[in-house]
Amino acid sequence: MSLYAISPVAEVTLPIIGREELFPVRRVYCVGRNYAAHAREMGDDPNRDLPFFFCKDRSCVQLVTLNGVTPLPYPDATERFEYEVELVVALSQGGRNLTLDEAQAAVYGYGVGLDMTRRDLQSLAKQKGRPWEAGKAFEFSAPMTPIVPRGATPVLEAGKIELSVNGEVKQSSNLTHLTWGIAEVIVKLSEQFELYPGDLIMTGTPENVGPVVIGDTIEALVEGVAEFKMEVV
């Protein structure tokens, strides 16, 4: 006899490059406006703001293939479906109020992801002072690559981050332009949430976010981590 009234939700996992094990996803944290130019683009002052956070449910995660084109479904209830390319950090350790050294040691590896956004719904939520979930935490809103273990790539402090639509570069920056670096983000996040192994952190997007429509092809990369291609369907 089952212990459950309904079937339990399946685990969400990501492959790990070069290993047979899978990375189990616990929570997906997102950092808002962590590149100065994007903060200005969205009306903020990057010299004044501490990092702020919001979450996507782990069910939002969509695995993308590194060879070929992954379909990205255009969501319901929006007329402005926008891309944001981001470096993803995967944690193998957790805790509260971590030091910088502890934060750096907590990093298991990296991936590349898209924080896909129903911008019209997010903008309306901002105007009304409402939560962002409808604009940010919907199905397929967090496409991600497999995880690249930290041992297979250097500690990331620099590297190109770029997104193109139909072959035209839309976002192009460098990880050196992060307002808050990877370890600093983990420290600040651990002051507000107890972190656990399996947590993912989407570390923010550069400027020039914009919309896509059905039929568009998105190409995204972080130098030294991964690159992938998706088609909006």
What does this 3D model show about the protein?
This protein is an alpha+beta fold and 233 residues long. The protein has a single domain, classed as Alpha-Beta Complex (Fumarylacetoacetate hydrolase, domain 2). It has helices at 36-41, 100-105, 119-128, 133-136, 182-192, and strands spanning 13-15, 22-24, 28-32, 52-56, 61-63, 69-72, 81-83, 85-91, 107-114, 117-118, 142-144, 148-149, 160-165, 168-174, 200-202, 210-212, 217-222, 226-232. The strands form five sheets. The chain has a six-stranded mixed β-sheet with strand order 4-3-15-8-9-12. Strands 6-18-17-13-14 form a five-stranded mixed β-sheet, with no helix packed on it. A hairpin with a 2-residue loop joins strand 13 and strand 14 (168-174). The N and C termini lie far apart (42 Å). The relative contact order is 0.26. The mean pLDDT is 94.
What is the number of E strands? 18
The level of helicity is 10-25%
What is the CATH first-level class name? Alpha Beta
Cα gyration radius (Å): 17 Å
Overall number of domains: 1
Query: How are helices and strands ordered from N to C?
Result: EEEHEEEEEHEEHHEEEEHEEEE
Strand order of the largest sheet: 4-3-15-8-9-12
Sheet with most strands: 6 strands, mixed
Query: CATH superfamily assignment?
Result: Fumarylacetoacetase-like, C-terminal domain
* CATH fold description: Fumarylacetoacetate hydrolase, domain 2
Q: Which stretches of 5+ consecutive residues score pLDDT under 50?
A: none
Measured between the Cα atoms of the first and last residue, the distance is: 42 Å
- What structural category characterises the helix and strand content? alpha+beta
What is the subunit organization of this protein? Answer: single chain
Q: Given the C-alpha coordinates, what overall shape results?
A: globular
Please work out how many helical segments DSSP would assign: 5
CATH architecture: Alpha-Beta Complex
Keywords: Hydrolase, Metal-binding, Pyruvate
Protein name: Fumarylpyruvate hydrolase
Organism: Marinomonas gallaica
EC number: 3.7.1.20
